[in-house]
Write a structure and sequence with these properties.
- The complex is a heterodimer of chains A (289) and B (281).
- Chain A contains 12 helices and no strands.
- By secondary structure, chain A is mostly helical.
- Chain A is globular.
- The two termini of chain A are 51 Å apart.
- The N terminus of chain A is likely disordered.
- Chain B is an alpha/beta fold.
- Chain B has 2 domains: 206 residues, 3-Layer(aba) Sandwich (Rossmann fold), CATH 3.40.50; 68 residues, no CATH class.
- Chain B is 38% helix and 24% strand.
- Chain B contains 8 helices and 10 strands.
- In chain B, strands 6-7-8-4-9-10 form a 6-stranded mixed beta sheet, sandwiched between helices. In chain B, strands 1-5-2-3 form a 4-stranded mixed beta sheet, with helices on one face.
- In chain B, helix 3 packs across helix 4 and helix 4 runs parallel beside helix 5.
- The longest helix of chain B is centred in the last third of the chain and has 26 residues.
- The C terminus of chain B is likely disordered.
- The chains are: A mainly alpha (289), B alpha/beta (281).
- Chains A and B meet through helix 9 and helix 10 of A and strand 6 of B.
Chain lengths: 289, 281
């Protein structure tokens, strides 16, 4: 009896010292997964690029970076403003964007069709997978001379070259993800009396979507990469052409403007795909959540 | 599916059977997994199928469900065309919200209303827009039950549906399943390794041992308390004995008789286990 009484008294006095709500709040704050990547910081993704910008500015300002090697940021900004005012930047940008989008469009269409077809049927896999792997083993840029002979040096050649580079990651990721869909869902669909069309629509395509989106991220980036190459070969417009021309005249500031534009385009398009990923794949629980 | 299986849209008139199995044989390689099985299940009857692992009970259920593609076998099998399967894992499509998981494969008018009603029956109607990943294991299995029963099946096949759940959730699921079956009245074949689960849920208990049905007993539990417990204990002891578990050492047979067949059963079961698992996967 005595012990019980003293115990209760102790607990009560303890509670008086530390209000319960305060303890709870502290616990909630420290309750973060020990092995997770940690808390999200707002605009945290900008830290790296801004750091790079600061180093460049300081380097140019102190003279550590020679102005002939790399123009200082303020000259680049000034040049960019001039290029924008003259309309040269915009028209080149428009041409490049249109090219990349067209190449991306056809590459994605063919990549998805080939990936789904190879994923769904054995015959499709036997027929398609081998050639795609061969195509993958050949550096895409090495195909450009052949494409130039077949299609000339105009827009069709450029768009085809971009599409051929884009098609590979889309195909590989879609096909792979589709093949790794759990066979238990096939069994389930059989017991539910689902038709083949319904099975493809409700199981196969949503199941392959994460793979497709991952492939799209690679594809978007590589479409810009392909753009640079095709625009520096026999081109009379586009960002790549602008850069190539600037090289002839030794204008590093124009080159840097072009590079910055590529960077902005690459980052923006990748960000858009990631946004799409987040929206479409809401059902997934990942390390990010 | 083995070619010999008949699937009837309607069973013969007058017969109140949901399932009729005659001389069913299934082989994996040289091993006969199901050996000449005969079984009738009446409409609305709740049957539990017990057996040690490797006894062929999952193979039997998959044969009834029509999931045994490329398995060699013979015999005749009559099952209603409207049958549902509940698996050990809930098997919900992770990219579909609960209500869309329930309606998956359904067609016709007011499909959504029916799904909502089914979700209400399992107590999850106010979470119909959740993703499967947001649910606990027990809740997921409740959605699987809703998905099975929204089709008003004449036959419900359940392959150890509560095997992956904790003991408390399992008891709650038993009550839920009993209530749902009283309401929908499907014939049920519940494959389980849990003797108590079988006694408390089923009206009839079968034991499958080395491909043959060795036990087929009715379960009629009295309502009054002491008699009820005695009957449960009696059935339990009987079943455990036939499953090769000694419940009471005093009752045990002489060791020589008891152990010899047991050991062969265990070794053959172990040797065949990988093949069986691959089939099930």
């Amino acid at each position: 009896m005595n012990t019980i009484n003293s115990l209760t008294a102790d607990t009560v006095s303890d509670r008086r010292h530390k209000p319960i709500s305060a303890i709870d709040r502290n616990q909630a704050n420290s309750r973060r997964s020990r092995l997770g990547p940690g808390k999200e910081i707002r605009y945290g993704a900008a830290i790296g690029p801004i750091l790079l910008l600061v180093i460049w500015t300081l380097g140019s300002w102190t003279g550590i970076i020679d102005h002939r090697t790399l123009s200082p940021p303020w000259v680049v900004v000034q040049t960019a403003a001039e290029l924008i005012q003259s309309g040269r930047l915009w028209s080149n940008f428009e041409t490049s964007l249109f090219r990349a989008l067209q190449g991306l469009f056809w590459g994605v269409i063919f990549g998805v069709i080939l990936g789904v077809f190879a994923g769904l049927s054995r015959i499709g896999e036997y027929v398609i997978d081998g050639p795609v792997q061969i195509k993958r083993a050949i550096p895409s840029l090495a195909l450009i001379p052949l494409l130039m002979l077949w299609l000339g040096i105009g827009e069709p050649m450029k768009i085809t070259a971009i599409a051929m580079i884009v098609v590979v990651p889309i195909y590989i990721q879609t096909h792979d993800c589709l093949r790794s869909i759990d066979s238990r869902y096939l069994e389930l669909s059989e017991t539910l009396g689902v038709t083949r069309g319904q099975f493809i629509r409700h199981v196969v395509l949503p199941g392959a979507l994460p793979g497709f989106l991952l492939g799209l991220r690679f594809a978007v980036t590589s479409s810009w990469l392909a753009l640079v190459v095709v625009e520096q070969v026999n081109s009379t417009s586009g960002i790549g052409y602008m850069i190539e021309l600037a090289r002839t005249y030794g204008q590093t500031e124009v080159i840097v403007v072009g590079l910055a534009l590529y960077a902005v385009l690459g980052l923006t398009s990748d960000g858009l795909v990631r946004l799409l990923q987040k929206k479409v794949l809401k059902w997934r629980k990942t390390l990010n959540d | 599916m083995a070619q010999d299986v008949e699937r009837l849209t309607t069973l013969p008139e007058g017969k109140s059977l949901a399932v009729s199995v005659r001389h069913l044989v299934r082989r994996f390689g040289t091993r006969t997994v199901l050996d000449d099985i005969d079984l009738d299940i009446s409409k609305g009857e709740f049957v539990a199928l017990l057996g040690r692992s490797g006894s062929g009970k999952s193979t039997f259920l998959r044969a009834l469900a029509g999931l045994d593609h490329d398995v060699v076998g013979e015999g005749s099998l009559q099952v209603p065309s409207s049958l549902s399967v509940v698996f050990q894992d809930a098997r919900l499509l992770p990219w579909k919200r609960l209500v869309d998981n329930v309606t998956f494969g359904l067609s016709g008018a007011n499909v959504k209303a029916r799904a909502m009603q089914a979700l209400e029956e399992v107590g999850l109607h106010n979470r119909h827009m959740s993703w499967p990943a947001e649910l606990s294991g027990g809740e997921q299995q409740r959605v699987a039950l809703a998905r099975a029963l929204v089709r008003n099946p004449q036959l419900l096949l359940a392959d150890e549906p509560f095997g992956a759940l904790d003991a408390l959730t399992r008891l709650r699921m038993h009550a839920l399943l009993r209530r749902l079956c009283q309401h929908h009245e499907p014939a049920v074949l519940l494959v389980t390794h849990d003797v108590d689960e079988a006694i408390h849920l089923a009206q009839r208990i079968l034991i499958l041992d080395q491909g043959k049905l060795t036990v087929d007993i009715p379960v009629n539990l009295p309502d009054q308390s002491p008699a009820r417990e005695n009957e449960i204990a009696r059935i339990r002891r009987y079943l455990l004995q036939h499953l090769g578990v000694d419940t009471d050492l005093a009752d045990a047979e002489p060791p020589a008789l008891q152990e010899a067949p047991d050991q062969t059963a265990t070794t053959s079961g172990l040797a065949q286990e990988p093949a069986r698992t691959r089939r099930a996967a």
